[in-house]
Design a protein that fits this description.
This protein is an alpha/beta fold. The chain has two domains: 163 residues, Rossmann fold; 75 residues, no CATH class. The chain is built from nine helices and ten strands. The strands form two sheets. It has a six-stranded mixed beta sheet with strand order 6-7-8-3-9-10, sandwiched between helices. It has a four-stranded antiparallel beta sheet with strand order 2-1-4-5, with helices on one face. α3 crosses α4 and α5 packs parallel to α6. The protein is globular, with a radius of gyration of 18 Å. The site of adenosine-5'-diphosphate has 11 residues, from β2 and α1. One of its GO terms (cellular component) is plasma membrane. InterPro entries: AAA+_ATPase, ABC_AA/LPS_Transport, ABC_transporter-like_ATP-bd, ABC_transporter-like_CS, BCA_ABC_TP_C, P-loop_NTPase. Keywords: ATP-binding, Cell membrane, Membrane, Nucleotide-binding, Transport.
Length: 246
């Protein structure tokens, strides 16, 4: 690994009662790259994701973002320091239009927004449209969010996550429940996102992320198994053994 590290975990362990879901995991993630965290079901991917995104703290260990120790920081602070996440379950207002959903998200992030100023309102509108363009939903701006197909709702959710202009975007199984066409559209979108920011993706379908990821981190039974480029991971004997039969 050669580039600057944007976020890293140091010996992170997470227990649920007597069960250890994550054991002593230390991983650094490179800035401006797409890194996918992979591993079979139950490997601890979502637990790791939740610790990176601040949903809950590790039982032991630290999370460091840039130079700052962010271990135990409250989840609502994360967007303000530049970390956004897109949930496995959709996180949008179904009865509002696509455009309204993005506008609400932009307003929530814009502390200097002046509701009475037409110029402020127009700026917001422009930003909302460019975000919708980015995720390929511009044509659907006036539709209600609940009328969108599943894949489009996930794209809208990403537009909402991008409203705060995060340096780091975290996604847990962004293609869960998607058709092959939706999956490939989502993969294209993720690749476009990496042009301007760092993306960390959690995915249990290894083949799917092989083609688009710069690096992969493999978890197995809550432990770090391997990290490397897709080629290095593909040729790693331990990884092959874990994924045998999948
Ligand atoms: P993955 O996302 O890789 O499928 P998870 O991180 O969801 O794996 O889960 C890892 C292990 O931790 C699983 O055995 C799961 O049952 C357990 N686990 C996850 N969350 C909890 C929880 N809140 N309480 C108890 N056990 C949990
Ligand atoms: Mg999971």
């Amino acid at each position: 690994m050669s580039g600057e590290i944007i976020i890293r975990t140091e010996a992170v362990t997470r227990r649920f009662g007597g069960f250890t879901a994550l054991k002593n995991v230390s991983v650094g993630f490179e800035k401006g790259k797409l890194t996918s965290i992979i591993g079979p079901n139950g490997a601890g991917k979502s637990t790791f994701f939740n610790i990176l995104s601040g949903a809950f703290p590790p039982s032991e260990g630290r999370v460091v973002f840039g130079d700052a120790d962010i271990t135990g920081l409250k989840p609502h602070v994360y967007p303000r320091i530049g970390i956004s996440k897109s949930f496995q379950i959709t996180n949008i207002f179904p009865a509002f239009t696509v455009l309204e959903n993005v506008r609400i998200a932009l307003q929530a992030h814009c502390s200097r927004f002046n509701f009475w100023s037409p110029r402020s309102r127009l700026g917001l509108e422009d930003k909302a449209h460019s975000l919708l363009q980015m995720v390929g939903l511009e044509r659907h701006a006036a539709r209600l969010a609940k009328e969108l197909a599943h894949g489009q709702q996930r794209a809208l959710e990403i537009a909402v996550a991008l409203a705060g202009d995060p340096k780091l975007l975290l996604m847990d199984e962004p293609t869960a429940g998607m058709s092959p066409e939706e999956t490939s559209a989502m993969m294209d979108l993720i690749v476009r996102l990496v042009a301007d920011r760092t993306v960390i993706l959690v995915e249990h379908k290894m083949k799917m992320v092989m083609g688009i990821s710069d690096r992969l981190v493999v978890l197995h039974h809550g432990e770090f198994l391997a990290a490397g480029t897709p080629d290095e991971i593909r040729n790693n004997d331990e990884v092959k053994r874990v994924y045998l039969g999948q």
